[in-house]
Amino acid sequence: MIGFPVNSQSDAMRLRLLPPRLVEHSVEVARSLGFSESETDAMIAERALKVPG
Prior knowledge:
The structure is a single chain. By secondary structure, this protein is an all-alpha fold. It is built from two helices and no strands. The chain has a domain at 20-53. Keywords: Plasmid.
């Protein structure tokens, strides 16, 4: 018999990494959607795309 793949009794379920912060990957997401570097730069300048900091 195969065991259940998740063991909730172990310490393996601890949070190891924090989730990404809001807007942390906004440029990467926009680029993956097909926006060019100049388009993302323009969106940042127009405050249509937010970046960390």
